[in-house]
Specification:
Elements: H1 5-11, H2 16-19, H3 25-36, H4 40-43, E1 44-46, H5 57-60, H6 63-77, H7 88-113, E2 125-129, E3 135-140, H8 153-173, H9 180-197, H10 204-215, E4 232-235, E5 238-241
Parallel strand pairs: 1-3
Antiparallel strand pairs: 2-3, 4-5
Helix pairs in contact: 6-7, 7-8, 7-9, 8-10, 9-10
């Protein structure tokens, strides 16, 4: 199976279940990240006790917590422009980019390169927030999703979408200042980029299968609408994001280098 290609190469022909039976999943993921993306460990803490101020989705998504956080973030972004009207949509778009940008690549690497599957349920992810109100660090109660151990790469990523990404997007969207479509467009762009980062570790068939499932399949495996469908589209001979993330509407925040909007 493509998921265990890297480990099989490193550890030889002996079955991984015996070679890794004495290692915790948290330790295995720490080693994986340390070797290939050490910076993940700056914002993802594995199996460590979370500080008291950290919160799971069920807490931080509540209005009494989420709205003060985004207001604090707004104060930070507009600090040099006190008289500029504030726009909640691009602000929350950028806030959500912090959330998904910090945690989606580590989850993808964990699910695609480690034989045991990380349980991605939001209740196991406690977030520490930066002094400016944005997500800053994730403290994971590392648990194995035993039902996913023998799933394919596509099934694992589909499970991550359904069990983690969908509830978080709903938790952000429910406050009414941003629509889910914009968040999914941003997240699709992120996931497509990180798939390209995983090319050295995954075979071509797996990469093609994942790209098709994420961006060209109308439905998830349970038959519901795929929120990532056509968030990345073929354009000018390459896969490009479908729409702008709106961050440029915030003072002193420049457009992305590949912004879909044409400069005048």
């Amino acid at each position: 199976m493509a998921i265990i290609t890297r480990q099989a190469y490193e550890y030889g022909s002996s079955p991984l279940i015996f070679l890794q039976s004495d290692r915790s999943l948290g330790a295995a993921l720490h080693a994986l990240f340390s070797e290939h993306r050490a910076y993940f460990l700056d914002s993802v803490k594995l199996g460590e006790e979370a500080p008291a101020a950290c919160m799971p989705l069920a807490n931080w998504s509540q209005p009494e917590t989420f709205l003060p956080l985004t207001h604090l973030y707004s104060d930070h972004l507009y600090r040099d422009h006190p008289h500029t009207p504030r726009e909640a949509k691009p602000l929350q778009s950028l806030w959500a980019q912090w959330y998904f940008g910090l945690i989606v690549p580590p989850m993808m690497m964990a699910l695609l390169l480690e034989p045991r599957a990380l349980d991605c349920s939001p209740e196991h992810f406690h977030i520490e927030f930066h002094e400016t109100g944005r997500p800053a660090c994730y403290w994971l109660d590392v648990r194995e999703d035993e039902d996913a151990r023998y799933l394919s790469a596509r099934q694992r990523i589909d499970r991550m979408i359904q069990r983690h990404l969908l509830p978080v997007v709903q938790g952000i969207e429910q406050h009414g200042d941003i629509n889910a479509k914009l968040i999914w467009n941003n997240t699709g762009y992120l996931m497509h980029w990180f798939l390209s980062e995983l090319k050295p570790f995954l075979d071509e068939d797996t990469l093609v299968s994942l790209e098709h499932a994420l961006f060209f399949s109308r439905e998830l495996l349970n038959g519901t609408d795929n929120p990532l469908y056509r968030t990345m589209i073929p354009r000018d001979g390459a896969m490009q994001r479908r729409s702008c993330c709106q961050r440029y509407r915030i003072p002193d925040v420049q457009r992305c280098g590949d912004c879909t909007l044409k400069c005048a």
